[in-house]
From TrEMBL:
Residues 1-11 have a biased composition (Polar residues). Keywords: Oxidoreductase. Residues 23-468 form the Aldehyde dehydrogenase domain. This is aldehyde dehydrogenase (NAD(+)). Its EC number is 1.2.1.3. PROSITE patterns: ALDEHYDE_DEHYDR_CYS (PS00070), ALDEHYDE_DEHYDR_GLU (PS00687). Belongs to the aldehyde dehydrogenase family. The active site is at residue 247. Residues 1-25 are annotated as: Disordered. It catalyses: an aldehyde + NAD(+) + H2O = a carboxylate + NADH + 2 H(+). One of its GO terms (molecular function) is aldehyde dehydrogenase (NAD+) activity.
Length: 477
């Protein structure tokens, strides 16, 4: 059918139209190292044209009644849902994750995200105090730029664009240069539904993010990525007093108490540490295990991981795909090499095999020193330190001894204790007896260097708005 979207050709979208570029690029499938599809490299002129189109479109989009915006955004979801398998396939190829996980991301985006974000309303309030009524209302900010990381290439554009647009803003998605495809396609599918300039997408090189964040007509930057880049985005935003939400890196501790059912939690701890090949902001990145069950739990984790297949996303039963890109592969490979050089023992994994793609085995390093890179820095890959502990007070101190504050988990049958410990952890989310199971229904954000602001949850429209209070004085009426 002529109208069927192509999942092998990809364009920037500016003012409702596909746009190529003189300079083009492509990424590689991290499992096979084969080139994927050609993509344009956006120029500074493309940025200016997209921001101009977004600024123009804002004038009417903000006046479009809320229910009409809702109707159009629902239609966007309806236009995407028939292609869930195709999106799953593209995510698998661009990101490296196993096919089932690619399809999970597509399903999560087109069902969970659309279904939830499109139930949201502005949390307007009315108050009466003495002779006055007060009405609190919300107005959109203008042009929003949604900057995305490479670990969830479809999920992030969707979860940023939906609340931004529903609130009445226009939005330019900037995909990661490592995983541009599913983000470009989901924006393309909106073009027959949304007015030109309301939702656009740009893919480009390392200059693209700074061009967007420095553009004077951009009003809000919703950023997901590393803490180092987040600081640069905050600097750029400061100049124009642009609103900013920063969802940054993590170094999540798991604290395991001796009363747990070791066999039961071992597979969950493995999944929390190694799913998406450890490339998850809230992956378990340090495992603190009570000394009485230290060996027993690590043995059980080794048995659980042994059942997993490391392989290309196309292989049946693959659980752990390759690292997404060469830069991250080399960085994490360096941690494997450092562990070997410094004589840290691996409880399982530990060897780097000679493979064509960017594959690394799930690995637990046994009690490396507290000042080792593996403990102090976010690894963002499948190599995680395990550390024995004996005092609750000390383990809480160790868990908090990091500049990061994204998430943490506490594992115990005693829920009072779990609550007591959780409340002392300096993080935005604490998962009790679980790894993170993403839900758009609850707020998400980091403490300390893990971010500024919150995404998702019942107030997810608010970060995309100005607040305005109307004060009614009865006496003068
Ligand atoms: P990154 O910071 O390298 O890149 C993220 C995005 O920012 C990319 O689109 C990149 O092109 C862009 N960018 C980079 N420098 C920029 C600049 N100066 N101005 C504007 N844009 C710029 O991060 P990454 O390697 O893609 O992702 C991995 C990191 O993201 C990890 O630290 C991970 O923990 C974090 N992350 C956080 C969350 C969260 O919700 N907190 C979710 C996913 C990933």
């Amino acid at each position: 059918m002529a109208d069927e979207p192509s999942f092998t050709s990809f364009h920037n979208i500016v003012a409702g139209k596909p746009r190529g570029s003189e300079k083009t690029s492509y990424t590689v499938d991290p499992a096979t190292l084969e080139n994927l599809w050609e993509i344009p490299v956006a120029t500074e002129q493309d940025v200016h044209d997209a921001v101009t189109a977004a600024k123009d479109a804002f004038k009417s989009w903000k006046k479009t009644p809320f229910d009409e915006r809702l109707r159009l955004l629902k239609a966007w979801g309806d236009a995407c849902r028939p292609y869930l398998k195709q999106f799953g396939e593209v995510i698998m190829k661009e990101n490296g994750k196993p096919r089932a996980f690619g399809e999970f991301e597509a399903n999560h985006s087109f069902n969970e995200a659309f279904n939830y974000f499109l139930t949201l309303k502005f949390p307007e309030e009315d108050h009466t105090v003495n002779d006055r009524d007060y009405h609190v209302r919300y107005t959109p900010l203008g042009v929003v730029v949604a900057i995305c990381a490479w670990n969830f290439p479809l999920g992030q554009p969707v979860m940023k664009a939906l609340p931004a647009l529903l609130a009445g803003n226009t939005c330019i998605v900037k995909t990661s240069p490592f995983t541009p495809y599913s983000g470009m396609k989901v924006v393309e599918l909106a073009q027959k539904i949304l007015p030109p300039g309301v939702l656009q997408v740009l893919s480009g090189d390392d200059r693209l993010g700074p061009w967007l964040t420095h553009h004077p007509w951009v009003n809000k930057i919703s950023f997901t990525g590393s803490t180092a880049s987040g600081r640069k985005v905050a600097e750029a935003a400061a100049k124009g007093l642009k609103r900013v939400t920063l969802e940054l890196g993590g170094n999540d501790p798991a604290i395991v108490f001796p009363d747990v059912d070791v066999e039961k939690i071992a597979p969950d701890l493995c999944f929390g540490s190694f799913w998406n090949t450890g490339q998850v902001c809230t992956a378990v990145k340090r495992i603190y295990i009570h000394k009485d069950i230290y060996t027993q739990l690590l043995d059980a984790m080794a048995r659980a991981v042994n059942k997993w297949k490391v392989g290309a996303g196309t292989e049946a039963g693959a659980m752990v795909g390759p690292m997404q890109n060469e830069m991250q592969y080399k960085k994490v490979r360096g941690l494997f090499e450092e562990a070997k050089q410094k004589g840290y023992a691996a409880k399982f994994g530990g060897d780097v095999k000679d493979t064509k793609g960017f594959f690394l085995e799930p690995t637990i390093i046994d009690n490396p020193p507290p000042d080792s890179t593996l403990v102090t820095e976010e690894q963002f890959g499948p190599i995680v330190p395990a550390i024995p502990w004996s005092s609750e007070e000390e383990v809480i101190e160790s868990a908090n001894n990091t500049a990061m504050g994204l998430g943490a988990s506490v594992w115990t049958k005693d829920l009072d204790r779990a609550r007591r410990v959780a409340e002392q952890l300096e993080v935005g989310s604490v998962y009790i007896n679980s790894y993170e199971k993403v839900s758009f229904r609850v707020p998400f954000g980091g403490h300390k260097d893990s971010g500024i602001g919150v995404e998702c949850g019942p107030n997810a429209l608010v970060p995309f708005c100005n607040m305005q209070v109307l004060h009614y004085n009865f006496k003068t009426a």
